[in-house]
Structure formats: C-alpha cells, structure tokens
Amino acid sequence: xxxxxxxxxxxxxxxxYAKRAVSELVEENPAYSEIQIDWxxxxxxxxxxxxxxxxxxxxxxxxxxKLYEAHPSENYTDCKKNVKSALDAVLDKx
Length: 94
What we know:
Largest sheet: 4 strands, mixed
Structural class: alpha+beta
Distance between the termini: 11 Å
Number of strands: 4
C-alpha cells in the first residue's frame, strides 16, 4: 500500500479544507482509499515535522518528495484540486 504523510494543525482552516477534500475525493474515487495517509499534527509531533522541509500546512509528502503545500488565502476549490493532484501523483507511481 502506498503511503503519504500529511502535516496539519488542528486549528488551521486550510487543514480542515484538506480533510474535507480527502473525504470527498475518496468517496468520488475509491482508488484513493488505496493510499494510506499518515496524518501528523505538527504541534503534537515536532520531532517528525522537523525532518521535513515545508512552511505552510497542510503539506503532503510521498517519501521525501513534497507533493503539495498550501498557501495563504487558498480557497477550498484550490485545496481540493491540489490534494487531488497529490493523490493522483501517488497513484501513478510504480
């Protein structure tokens, strides 16, 4: 099973977008459920988040490759599109 790491903060509105997007995308395309998501709340696990290069959350990594990093003022539509692109990239990996 392929695995991604998704960094988030509990009180972050963009992270709530990402959680919603993941749920909707899995419902729309069951193939996404084949991707295991390791949800890391960065303030609760700083020793893990410190090992990765990113600034904004949510951020998605596959292995050491950053597939998505949110940006300020991103709306839900953009977030869902970016999360979908990250999940598609993982599905396409051999």
